Amino acid sequence: MLFLFLIIQTNSLNWLEFFKLRSKPTIDMNKFLIVGIGNIGKEYFETRHNIGFEALDYACKEFEEIFSTQKLGDIVKFKLKGKTLILLKPSTYVNLSGKSVRFWLQKENIPIENLLVISDDLNLDFGAIRIRTKGSHGGHNGLKDIQEVLNTPIYNRLRFGIGGDFSKGRQSNFVLSKWSKNEQSELITLRPLFHQIITNYVNNGIVDTMNKFNSK
Hints:
Distance between the termini: 77 Å
Helix content: 40-55%
Largest sheet: 7 strands, mixed
CATH architecture: 3-Layer(aba) Sandwich
Strand content: 15-25%
Low-confidence stretches: 18-22
CATH class: Alpha Beta
Radius of gyration: 21 Å
Structural class: alpha/beta
Mean pLDDT: 90
CATH superfamily: Peptidyl-tRNA hydrolase
Number of strands: 7
Order of helices and strands: HEHEEEHEEHEHHHH
Number of domains: 1
């Protein structure tokens, strides 16, 4: 009887392990998460720190999709040539962006190499674009939080230059202020790049996208 009991117990453990393996989420290499960093609220609309939101708003319009409010952010999910795109505007504010990014990566079983984060950058001239597969957060609190939460500096990011035309100690005011009239005018011609970059990234990969769109 003891021998039979041990066999049953062993088989039960094997079946338990089998079901654990079967239930383990499978990473989907045909899914992509595109994140635009920004702050929620009307007071932050069209401010320099919210270029990530602006980028996704423009891209969403071009893709003819509509955002819906879901857990930890506004989301739009759709297909592009057989691949699934998820555009995310986190509702956690810039400094806590990592929580939202991690949640949607895990929820949708998206590999980190299929993540692209769009943010502003004080260290680049206005309108300059830098696309990289890794790097430091460069003092950007949103990128810093994403790096800490994901526990890696290796993820795709698109940094959009907002310039550094501010006096000492006025950095926060500068990034949270609205675009100048000249900048707003130039953005009209620059915004289409976001749609083009996202589309190229999904269709052709990050290396091709860096070669085509990084500012010279």
